[in-house]
Amino acid sequence: MLRKIYDWLMSLAASRHAAIALAAVSFAESSFFPIPPDLLLAPMVLARPQRAFAYAALCTAASVIGGLLGYAIGVFLAPVAHQILALFGHPQGQQEFQAWFARYGLWIILIKGLTPIPYKLVTITAGLARFDLFTFVWASIVTRGARFFLTATLLKYFGPAIRAEVERRIALYATLAVVALVAIVVAL
Questions:
Q1: What residues make up the domain containing 44?
Q2: How many domains is the chain partitioned into structurally?
């Protein structure tokens, strides 16, 4: 099963629809979708390393634009934002997040934008907290760009070796990814 999913991602990454799919996933992940764009960015860079930085730029731009939708959800659709926060384990989170953003807003965006923690939590709560929109946008560009360009750079230059290792031990790496994801969810 893992091999089929991996092969499907690799075939999608090499298809003519890859850039559209990457932009759509990057946009959606920043506001409501649970799957990170890295799962598509990585095989796309592996399939076409000469386009690595173009893919990273596309991923960054779509993620920041999607982040603006997440911000708008927080500002204009507070009941929906509260449901999303409850879904992610923060049912009474508005006051907590407002206090965090008042004190650490820029650092929350810069640090959490680099991590695998769902970015939609940052974008929606920034809107709920009415965090400064200009700071939100430039910090999102910096942090999301750093994340996606780092991924693209590593895979462009070390991709063939990484790909061979992943293909050789796909079950092990999938298990480690699931364990890491569960650990992150439990920690949150």
A1: 2-187
A2: 1
